[in-house]
TrEMBL record:
Binding site for [4Fe-4S] cluster: C140, C144, C147
Organism superkingdom: Bacteria
Residues bound to S-adenosyl-L-methionine: G196, E197, S228, S250, L251, H252, N327
Designated name of the protein: Dual-specificity RNA methyltransferase RlmN
Native organism: Novispirillum itersonii
Length: 404
């Protein structure tokens, strides 16, 4: 089934001479993209050019500390070496198709990739800092019934460079180059909570997380990176061992009966297995608690009994809850729980010793809130396609399959 198949993007190996298919995001001239190569891959490419090992560190710093977009700007590298690099490499960014800023200062970017596919990235401010929410897939293979993004068919996985590039676009937008120190950052956190299930695109996501957390580049502490999964249990074990970033779990129900209905992935990995994977997550502690995300659905999962069962379910796991008011979207059968009911639910969890704040909805006016990503762009393309067809205009071949 498509909702439970673990999708992988293989880490790019060092390509054989003339093997264009093995290159990382080649451009029209067949030059390989430097963005998205792991540090080891970058070193291998440069060594193959006859460069000394230290060169990789210099290039890495230009790419991810300085945010440079042109090889010629690498001023501490000789002109001869830069010329050789220009023949082999390019530096990419996703194209910004649209940038929108909400009344509450949330900012959203619709990003277009080389093949014309699009994904969305959101910056969520919080006082003098905030988090960049990145996507890992174009569309989503899951069918969570409360999520508008989940109604949009999966098109493809994003590469490591396409994931990292989202954060770099956000830095471009706010002018946050070179990498500031820990206390001076506006873009202080990354949450892997955008379009797609990140653990279904495991290798590319992990490579991107390693690039984001490299101390000589973008330099985000692993404590400031949170990955959210719907419960891909085998990959949760891998994630904890491989990178150890903060873990968030889209839980949304306290029983298998309810979760089976609203999150079909639960039929593959039910709550017992999911909770055990959370208990075993290596970096979980009272200082780094797992976050359980819980969307509040009126009459579905919001009773006093649900709250008490939830507390029993997570007993023994260092955790906290993030209660999310449901964001209504066209065609959805669900309603958001009444505010008094949400507060009561939060109070019950607090009485059981769990932190359970209610997430403040952000960016609703630009469709940047939880579960709303890419909806606007797809509706617009569908409307344009229908208008062209009504006018007898043939499709130009650039319509979005996911919008049809």
């Amino acid at each position: 089934m498509t909702d439970t198949t673990i999708m992988k993007t293989a880490v790019t190996p060092d390509p054989a001479p003339g093997d264009a298919a093995a290159l990382n995001n080649p451009d029209a001239e067949g030059r390989e993209d430097l963005i998205g190569l792991s540090r080891e891959q970058l070193a291998g490419r440069l060594t193959a050019m006859g460069e000394k090992s230290f060169r990789a560190g210099q290039v890495w710093a230009w790419l991810y500390n300085r945010g440079i977009r042109d090889i010629d700007g690498m001023s501490n590298i000789s002109k001869e070496t830069r010329a050789k690099m220009r023949e082999r490499f390019h530096i990419s960014r996703p194209q910004v198709s649209r940038e929108l800023t909400s009344a509450d200062s949330t900012r959203k970017w619709l990003l277009k990739y080389r093949d014309g596919q699009e994904a969305e990235t959101v910056y969520i401010p919080d006082d003098d800092r905030g988090a960049v929410c990145v996507s890992t897939q174009v569309g989503c293979t899951l069918t969570c019934r409360f999520c508008h993004t989940g109604t949009q068919m999966l098109v493809r996985n994003l590469s490591a460079g396409e994931i990292v590039g989202q954060f770099m676009v956000a830095r471009d937008s706010y002018g946050e180059w070179p990498t500031p120190n820990e206390t001076g950052r506006l873009l202080s956190n990354v949450v892997v909570m955008g379009m797609g299930e990140p653990l279904f695109n495991y290798d590319a996501t992990v490579t991107a997380l390693r690039i984001l957390s490299d101390p000589e580049g973008l330099a985000l502490s692993k404590r400031r990176i949170t990955l959210s999964t719907s419960g891909v249990v085998p990959r949760m074990y891998d994630l904890g061992n491989d990178v150890g970033v903060n873990l968030a779990v889209s839980l949304h129900a306290a029983t298998d009966d309810v979760r089976d209905v609203i999150m079909p992935i639960n039929k593959k990995w039910p709550l017992k297995e999911l909770m055990q994977a959370c208990r075993d997550y290596p970096s979980a502690s009272n200082a780094r608690r797992i976050t359980f995300e819980y969307i509040m659905l009126k009459g579905i999962n919001d009773s006093d009994a649900d709250a008490r069962q939830l507390a029993r379910l997570v007993k023994g796991i260092p955790c906290k809850f993030n209660l999310i008011p449901f964001n209504k979207w066209p065609g959805s059968d669900f309603e958001c729980s009444d505010w008094s009911r949400i507060e009561r639910f939060s109070d019950i969890l607090a009485e059981q010793g769990y932190s359970a704040p209610v997430r403040k909805p952000r960016g609703r006016d630009i469709l940047a809130a939880c579960g709303q990503l890419k909806s606007e762009s797809q509706r617009e393309r569908l409307s344009q396609l229908k208008a062209r067809r009504a006018a007898g205009i043939e499709d130009d071949g650039h319509g979005d399959a996911a919008a049809q």
